[in-house]
Design brief:
The chain is α/β, with parallel strands linked by helices. Helices cover 34% and strands 22% of the residues. It has a 6-stranded mixed sheet.
Length: 344
């Protein structure tokens, strides 16, 4: 662990510059817009650090590409010599319990760990930030005199994955985000493998297996749906529409001209005109759409069939429920058991 004495030549700039509510925080927008791609990482360990009480130093630390930690009253030479017993006694003398003093000592030791492959993360401004720290531990000096020790982040803090895509908190799992609730300063990240995958832009292999199985299941369900007779297929579309929020306001099938049923989507104020066919082509779709000339934001045409042989480009306010797309809807609506009961 390489250490240097305090740097007393640093600027004493106004700390309000680092406040997240200040107009001078434009640097953060520029930093978050960085999209440079880098090589995947393979850290030996991963640690979370809360940058100051209530993360109050995070803005400054990220702008200055630093890790900040601790009590400025801890003698620098005590840490330089790795005299952790003296550090423990320092906190006991300040009134900390033995357990708290032990935790604080452990955190400072981890902060000073010179391992170049130790990954550091923090959470700030709606994103995950990460980086690797230089082994130089030093006194920050003013204007950061309320912090005890600092380390530079090699290459700077990043809030994007290795491909340059933002690491938004809303895209992260609860298993990782619960780290934010840690009440002290430094802790190991329990969801380390997940964290590394997110930074490297990798997909969870379990998800890949699940998606492959889902595709297989949808294809099998598509074949089963094609075995339904006309009456059962019409009932399936009615059930599916209901599961998707449509409220039927007409009879189902029968002698109605042009449509098989009409339904409303109350949450969106949309009226849907449904036609159900076993098989159909582009001409059949056109003939159906000609009966609903005033389609728009509040009037939608839904054309359902076992298999549709037509183009991929659909007219405005038109949906075609067919093939694998229809089977996927049926699966996600939980109607696969109903289909199985009709055909097996």
């Amino acid at each position: 662990m390489r250490m240097e004495p305090p740097d007393d030549d640093r600027s004493t700039a106004d700390k309000s510059h680092f406040c997240v509510d200040c107009a001078g925080f434009a640097w953060l927008v520029e930093r978050m817009d960085e999209t440079n791609s880098i090589q995947p990482i393979a850290p030996t360990k991963a640690r979370f650090i809360k940058l100051g009480p209530g993360n109050a130093w995070a803005g400054r630390a990220i702008e200055e590409d630093k890790l900040y930690f601790g009590d400025p009253d801890i003698p620098f030479d005590v840490v330089t010599s790795s005299n952790w017993e003296s550090v423990h006694n320092h906190w006991l003398a300040k009134g900390a319990s033995k357990a708290s003093a032990s935790d604080s000592t452990r955190e400072l030791r981890e902060f000073c760990d010179p391992d170049p492959d130790a990954l550091w993360i923090t959470f700030f401004h709606g994103r995950l930030w990460w980086g690797f720290a230089d082994d130089d531990v030093h006194r920050p000096g003013p204007p950061e005199s309320e912090t005890g020790f600092a380390r530079a982040v090699i290459g700077g803090w990043r809030s994007t994955n290795v491909a340059g895509n933002p690491l938004y908190l809303t895209d992260l799992s609860t298993a990782l985000l619960q780290t934010r609730a840690y009440r002290r300063t430094v802790c190991s990240v329990s969801a380390r493998d997940y964290l590394i995958r997110k930074i490297n832009g990798e997909t969870d292999p379990r998800l890949e297996r699940f998606r492959a199985l889902e595709i297989e299941l949808v294809n099998e369900l598509d074949q089963l749906i094609r075995e339904l007779n006309e009456t059962d297929f019409e009932i399936l579309i009615d059930l599916l529409a209901a599961r998707l929020g449509w409220v039927r306001r007409s009879a189902l099938g029968g002698a109605q001209a042009d449509v098989d049923f009409v339904a409303d989507l109350p949450a969106l104020g949309v009226c849907g005109f449904f036609q159900v066919k076993s098989k159909a082509d582009a001409l059949a779709l056109k003939q159906f759409l000609d009966t609903i000339p005033d389609r728009g934001p509040t009037r939608r045409a839904i054309f359902a069939c076992h298999s549709f042989k037509g183009g991929n480009v659909l007219p405005e306010a038109t949906e075609v429920w067919s093939g694998a797309d229809l089977a996927s809807k049926v699966l996600h609506a939980g109607l696969q058991e109903w289909v199985l009961q009709q055909v097996t």
